Structure formats: structure tokens, C-alpha cells
Amino acid sequence: MDILLIAGLWLDGSAWDDVASALRSLGHRPVPLTLPGQGDGPSSATLDDQVAAVLAAVDAASGKPMVVGHSAAATLAWLAADARPDQVAKVVLIGGFPVGDGRPYADFFPLRDGVMPFPGWDPFAGPDSADLDEEARHAFTAAVIPVPGDVATGIVRLTDERRFTVPVVLVCPEFTPAQAQAWINAGDVAELAQVTHLEFIDIDSGHWPMHTKPAELARLLAAAA
Question: Is the distance from CB of 64 to CB of 54 less than 8 angstroms?
Fold first, then answer.
């Protein structure tokens, strides 16, 4: 199966190198995406540009792909299900939740000179980054790519309720399946509350399992596929 891999903020397709290698050995065809403005083209890219790139990858896939979105890119994966509900076999969300219609994509941190730079490790202290040693943190920060402001502040538009019929797997890294279910039950994740087929998978890692647990993450993705 084709497995489209969309990394979260500040990352390009190379974040998936170890996961992709493991997936190939398990018989799948991983397609790591480098998004406009995050490793591909100028920093003037918009959210619409990134959505278009994801949809182009869905359209180019062999058969129905599984679309994987990490962190903020959970929303990009969900937008693919909304735009192509008959073409996406399954959506996998890793450590992130899709935002609802009419909300900003990822306006989590201040913009500077038209981009949202990586804010450093303080906002990610605790479970998010506990499994990243100093060497891993240095490698991460050396590779980060500021997110275009028009991506971070772009408004999400969801239009097709058939997205709720696309099966969803939520991979829970720095939080547990029980916590995720509680957030959904409380109404904090309205989109997932309406999904017909929702599965939870636990992985004992921080927020970036593609860096710290790539082989295990690949096995989980292969099983989901």
C-alpha cells in the first residue's frame, strides 16, 4: 500500500527517513512529503498550497493510500479525507488532532518576519521531549524550517461530511489512548467525535516517534495499513 507521510511543523520529508526505510522492508511504499514552504519552494507558501500538495500525492498514489499526519499535520491528513473521501483508505494521526472548519491551521507560536520559527524546547518540556537526548535535540534544531505565516494562520475549510466515514487511527505518543478518548468525550476534538471508525494505538514515546522509535512506529503503520 502507498503510505503518504506528512510531518508536523518545522519538518520536511526527511523526518521520515528511518520510518520509510522500515516500511519498505515491510512491503509498503512510503511517500514522505516535503511541503511547500517547508523545504519546497519559497516561504511565501500558503495553507492552500500545502493542501494542494497533499491532494496531488493522493491523486498520484497507486490505489487508495493511507494518509499519515503527524502533530499539526493531522489537520492536513484530515483535509485530504475531506477532499478525497472515496480515495483515502485510512487516515492515521500521530500525536495530533484535526482542527475544525473555520479555525486557523496552527497559530500556536508568534510569527517573526512572516514565518513561525521553532520556539525552542521550553514549550515542549516534559513528556513531549523526554525521550530526546541532547544530541537528538541538537540534530532536530539544526534541521528545522520556519513555517510560513500564511500556512500557520491559514483558515481550515472542511466541506464534505463523508470524511467521517474514512477510518481513522490515532497513534498516542506523549498521551495515552484513555486521555485521548476523554478529550474527545469532553468535546475538545469535535471532528474525531463524529468519526464512524476510530481506533487508538499506544506508543511509548515523546511527540516525535519518527525520530526516537522509528522501527516501532513503522510496524504500527504497517499493521494499520
Answer: no
**Measured CA distances, 60 to 3, 10, 56 (Å):** 12, 25, 6
* Tens digits of residue pLDDT in 131-172: 999 999 999 999 999 999 999 999 999 999 999 999 999 999
Alpha-carbon gap, residue 95 to 218, rounded angstroms: 15
CA distance 183 to 192: 10
Q: What is the CATH number of the domain that holds 185?
A: 3.40.50.1820
Domain extent, residue 156, equals 2-224
Task: Name the pLDDT band for 71 (thresholds 50, 70, 90).
Answer: very high
- When divided into structural domains, the chain yields a total of 1
Residue 5 and residue 67 in contact, taking contact as beta carbons nearer than 8 Å: no
Angle (deg, nearest 10), helices 47-60 and 74-83: 60
pLDDT of residue 43: 82
Beta bridge partners of 155: 104
What does pTM read for this prediction? Answer: 0.96
Q: What distance in Å separates the CA atoms of residue 218 and residue 207, rounded to the nearest whole number?
A: 15
